[in-house]
Amino acid sequence: MKKNPYKVLGVKEGASYDEIKKAYRELAKKYHPDRYRNNPLADLADEKMREINEAYDFLMKNAGGAYQYQSESQSYGNSTASQSGSYRTQYQSQQSRQQSQQGYADESELERQVRTHINNGNLNEAQRILDRMRNRNANWYYLQGLVFLRRGWYDRGYSNIQRAANMDPTNYEYRNALNNLNNQSFGYRHNPYYNNTYRSNPDMCQICGTLWCADSCCECMGGDLIGCC
Amino acid sequence: MFGYVEPDKPELKIREFEVFRGYYCGVCKSIGKRFGQVPRISLNYDLAFLAVLLDSTQGEMSIGKVERCIAHPIRKRYVIRRNQFVDYAADMNIVLAYYNLRDKWSDEKNLLGAFGSMVLRGAYKKASKRYKEKTEKIKSLLDELIRLEKEKCASLDEAAEPFANIMREVFQCPHVEDESKRKVLGWLGYNIGRWIYILDAWDDLADDIKSGSYNAILLQFQYNGGDLDAFKASIKERLDFSLTYSLSECEKAYSLLGAVKNAGIIDNIIYSGLIVKTDKVLQGRCKKNEKESI
Questions:
Q1: What whole-number distance in Å separates Cα of residue A214 and Cα of residue A212?
Q2: Is pTM, for the whole model, over 0.80?
Q3: pLDDT tens digits, residue range B108-163?
Q4: CB-based contact, A116 to chain B, within 8 Å
Q5: Which residue ranges make up each domain of chain B?
Q6: Facing residue for B252 by CB, picked from A39, A181, A193
Q7: B178 CB near a chain A CB, below 8 Å?
Q8: In CATH, what number does B9-282 get?
Q9: CA of B245 to nearest chain A CA: how many angstroms apart?
């Protein structure tokens, strides 16, 4: 049985369009395939994304305020509605990009095999082929980097991809992968939970220091900000 | 296990803190009840986190009781009891503590290690019988870890892998029925294990230089006996990436777990506690064994 679309999006039944849209956007950001690139859980994230998209499409078509969801009579999920948020289109272009990557013209047969093995999570096989390859060009380092990342060896993964990007600075894919890595770790460090905490607010020391500074400056100029000192 | 996984306490709600402590005390009491009083001292925070995390996969209310305990005789505390995940965390705590102490003895001829592993031996046998396959795997991974140390492995990624895989095994609790959830837990465990290993290696740099012990960071970045602070500063950014990226993978895994309860505590640890700890250790503001009391 399909899940209740309201529950999937984490909104109350009868939520307004805006609330649904907002919740959808949050979730779509969270489970976006860009975040789960080179991740062994990518298939689960995809599934989750599909669920969210289906729930969103269903609610956008049928809801709008006071609609009551009945799981018995209504089935959603096979809706092929063209309703699509901005993430949906991004998501599709992402997939097609991946497909086009597989068809690189200047990539050798072996490199294509490595890509397929990585995509299927067959890391040992991919590594075996890479080890046998003599020609260690930028693409080789890139693929080796992907294998490392997928394995959880982020230090080596990062340096291999960096090396590929340095060897061929014009390649969009390498640069993109490198940026993505940096974004992932930056994004995690700057998550809203961590940044809305006591740490980000000025403490008493800072406030006093600033006041003292301002007072001294004023006094330099002949004025006075705080009369008593 | 090193006790690096901690909540960011000032951000925790009082209620959440009580629940977290309830799990912590629950694991402790579960050890006491099934293995005797002495092994209780081997408990650490990481396993309390494991209990909280595993229990979040099922929606049933956890049963708590307010009781007294030897460590805190004055005030009664809320303790989570009769919970299969709490018991599982207690078993894993014993297994890991036993290996850790035995390793200390065979490695550094540490007497505390010899004594401790002797004390824990009975408890370990009991716990390992319950999870035979799992302890076998952990044991072989530990052998691999020791082998890499002996071979003076100069890659941090490679050296961290066996311990990360041990944590993968530990997090993949057989009582979690859903297979995809177990997979998610495994990846979370791998990355948290990797984070612990690297953080610990960084924390131990000064000691390892002094004693001449193995440390993957020293070997990978070819420390030549110069100024340690300059050495640390030169590699800090790179290690920061490695640590933060591992944590970001933990976070991604956690997003897919779909916790049905305890989300407040786990959010606090995943989104804040681990970052706070990383920064503390990277800046050298945290010495090992410096444990805040709960």
A1: 5
A2: yes
A3: 777 888 888 888 888 998 988 999 999 999 999 999 999 999 999 999 999 999 99
A4: no
A5: 9-282
A6: A39
A7: no
A8: 1.10.600.10
A9: 5
